[in-house]
Amino acid sequence: MISRMKAKARPRATERRGAARETINRRAHYVAGLGALPRDCMVIDISEGGARLFSDTALPDSFTLILSGDATQTRRDCRVVWRLGGECGVAFVAPASG
User: Fold this and answer.
1) pTM given for the model
2) What are the pLDDT tens digits along the chain (98 aa)?
3) Which end of the chain is more exposed for a tag (fewer CB within 10 A), N or C?
4) For 88, which DSSP code?
5) Domain 22-92 class, CATH top level
6) Is-contact 55 42, C-beta < 8 A?
7) CA dist 1 to 7, 8, 43, 58, Å?
Protein backbone atom coordinates (compact mmCIF):
# COMPACT_ATOMS: atom_id res chain seq x y z
CA MET A 1 0.00 0.00 0.00
CA ILE A 2 1.31 3.43 -0.94
CA SER A 3 0.99 6.05 1.75
CA ARG A 4 0.35 9.61 0.73
CA MET A 5 2.27 12.39 2.37
CA LYS A 6 0.83 15.84 2.70
CA ALA A 7 3.14 18.76 2.09
CA LYS A 8 3.50 20.93 5.12
CA ALA A 9 3.23 24.65 4.56
CA ARG A 10 6.30 26.48 5.72
CA PRO A 11 5.75 29.73 7.55
CA ARG A 12 6.95 32.77 5.64
CA ALA A 13 9.89 34.73 6.92
CA THR A 14 8.89 37.82 8.84
CA GLU A 15 9.28 41.01 6.84
CA ARG A 16 11.49 43.40 8.79
CA ARG A 17 11.23 46.41 6.49
CA GLY A 18 8.89 49.23 7.40
CA ALA A 19 7.78 49.82 3.79
CA ALA A 20 7.36 47.63 0.72
CA ARG A 21 10.15 47.81 -1.83
CA GLU A 22 9.69 48.38 -5.55
CA THR A 23 12.12 46.73 -7.97
CA ILE A 24 13.39 49.39 -10.38
CA ASN A 25 16.87 48.30 -11.63
CA ARG A 26 17.79 51.87 -12.60
CA ARG A 27 21.17 53.50 -13.08
CA ALA A 28 21.93 56.26 -10.62
CA HIS A 29 24.89 58.23 -9.25
CA TYR A 30 26.29 58.77 -5.80
CA VAL A 31 28.41 61.62 -4.49
CA ALA A 32 30.69 60.89 -1.53
CA GLY A 33 31.09 64.49 -0.35
CA LEU A 34 31.46 68.13 -1.30
CA GLY A 35 33.57 68.51 -4.40
CA ALA A 36 33.54 64.77 -5.17
CA LEU A 37 32.64 63.65 -8.67
CA PRO A 38 29.49 61.53 -9.14
CA ARG A 39 30.10 57.77 -9.49
CA ASP A 40 27.79 55.22 -11.12
CA CYS A 41 25.70 52.69 -9.24
CA MET A 42 22.54 50.65 -9.82
CA VAL A 43 19.40 50.95 -7.71
CA ILE A 44 18.04 47.40 -7.48
CA ASP A 45 14.99 48.21 -5.37
CA ILE A 46 13.72 51.17 -3.41
CA SER A 47 11.19 52.09 -0.74
CA GLU A 48 10.22 55.19 1.21
CA GLY A 49 12.92 54.51 3.80
CA GLY A 50 15.82 53.08 1.81
CA ALA A 51 17.17 51.14 -1.14
CA ARG A 52 19.33 48.22 -2.22
CA LEU A 53 22.23 49.33 -4.43
CA PHE A 54 24.91 47.66 -6.50
CA SER A 55 28.26 49.26 -7.28
CA ASP A 56 31.51 48.02 -8.82
CA THR A 57 33.36 50.26 -6.37
CA ALA A 58 33.05 50.34 -2.60
CA LEU A 59 30.41 52.80 -1.46
CA PRO A 60 31.33 55.10 1.44
CA ASP A 61 29.44 54.78 4.74
CA SER A 62 27.38 57.88 3.90
CA PHE A 63 26.76 59.67 0.60
CA THR A 64 24.15 61.41 -1.54
CA LEU A 65 22.25 59.25 -4.04
CA ILE A 66 21.09 60.99 -7.23
CA LEU A 67 18.15 59.38 -9.04
CA SER A 68 17.19 60.72 -12.44
CA GLY A 69 13.66 60.21 -13.71
CA ASP A 70 11.88 61.27 -16.86
CA ALA A 71 11.81 64.98 -16.00
CA THR A 72 13.06 65.13 -12.41
CA GLN A 73 16.17 64.49 -10.39
CA THR A 74 15.87 63.36 -6.78
CA ARG A 75 18.71 63.58 -4.26
CA ARG A 76 18.65 61.41 -1.11
CA ASP A 77 21.21 61.43 1.71
CA CYS A 78 22.03 57.79 2.54
CA ARG A 79 23.66 55.76 5.29
CA VAL A 80 24.84 52.19 4.56
CA VAL A 81 23.19 49.65 6.89
CA TRP A 82 24.52 46.40 5.37
CA ARG A 83 27.01 45.20 2.74
CA LEU A 84 27.34 41.96 0.82
CA GLY A 85 29.87 41.92 -2.00
CA GLY A 86 28.98 44.68 -4.47
CA GLU A 87 25.52 45.13 -2.98
CA CYS A 88 24.52 47.24 -0.02
CA GLY A 89 21.39 48.36 1.73
CA VAL A 90 21.00 52.03 2.56
CA ALA A 91 18.65 53.98 4.79
CA PHE A 92 17.54 57.42 3.68
CA VAL A 93 18.48 59.90 6.38
CA ALA A 94 16.60 62.97 5.14
CA PRO A 95 13.42 63.73 3.16
CA ALA A 96 13.70 63.67 -0.65
CA SER A 97 14.83 66.84 -2.37
CA GLY A 98 14.78 67.55 -6.01
Assistant:
1) 0.77
2) 444 444 444 444 455 656 788 999 999 999 999 999 999 999 999 999 999 999 999 999 999 999 988 778 899 999 999 999 999 999 999 777 77
3) N
4) E
5) mainly beta
6) yes
7) 19, 22, 55, 60
